[in-house]
């Protein structure tokens, strides 16, 4: 829904195959490479998601023999690709999100992943109606390695990485914008930081939403700019340089005697146009806020559970809190919930080292798409009052299972196992085979069918995996009739012994097939036979 099948099967597949062709795949570099299929792209993404649910230091360890490696070997992964871990290495080497033949524009530093980020943001805005309360905060995509776009970040646990501004609705990522991406000038006198915030706020389709943010964004001018765009705002504010009235500023008190008399002091001021409200309260230290959402400041009673050691139980403890601070605590954490859902089952587990600097952003996009899909799933389930809803873990597990095609792989393995066991009875005697449906065989290659199929090669011919041990039909044809090109030139195959054409007269070897063509129904051993058959 958020990364559509059309995007995965057309954009990712085509760009991966073009990147492989540009790097000479199929020759000396990965000689057994075959063009990636839509199913393989889904399986590749599904394996990354599976690594978030069951993390390993290296995904390739899943293909180790369970008898030799008790910890990492997993037979369920062995049948996902026809060539096992070798196919995964090829896809990992040539996987590409952007087009490798287009020169990256200078004004788009994140060109290699810009298409999937734009696709995610577009679908996120399309599938969610913004609520009354939204939160604005920055997100950090951690990355290790050298990259000129990486920021030095010491105030987040994620560490150094890429920063992006984000607007979220209680854990649903609605829209985002990376710091290094150029942003259109929304307000002439605004700073680049506030221009990005106003640009994101204008993408919210509904009016008079309240956006909650921290002291990095809060200022009097910024609140006025939001109000002119029919958006309300509230956030913690710094004491100086942000337009906070001097009458509400409270200084830090260090003496204990003065501290007891200062704690609980509240100061409030309103602007002349009655739109902005500034206030402060002295708790353990002074806290200053500015808001266009609140019309009055009130002290409201609250209760919370506190453990009582004497009675050995939790009792209710009464306390007071400002209504604005209580609203801020409940609505500010939308982006944090989004990060929490994403980090709970990260694709890289505890290891985020990638040689490709853009690959962490691709993983972030897939993880955010899954988190948004889970929020939609929960919201629909609550509306329909469903009692049997999947947890976050089981929801991601189902997506990974469907992408990897684990159901088909397990069913095929079970079918082959039962078929091999049915040939021998319970006492060792041969059993009577059951009648099965006739097998639909691939068309037999003859000189007439070659001319027929080559002339009809128009459009896209998708690839398919080999499900059983079979031979390359092009090599088999060449061993009988010679090259496929002889049908075009009219040349005849030589017959040295004069006893008719047979396989002994040809030096071509019949090799095992590695993949096939869904349109033609022909099996191929490699790229050369694929190109020879399709006339490429």
TrEMBL record:
PiggyBac transposable element-derived protein domain sequence ranges: 14-374
Region spans: Disordered: 422-442, 486-505
Tree of life domain: Eukaryota
Biased composition (Low complexity): 422-432
Pfam families cross-referenced by the UniProt entry: DDE_Tnp_1_7
The protein's name: PiggyBac transposable element-derived protein domain-containing protein
Protein source organism: Cymbomonas tetramitiformis
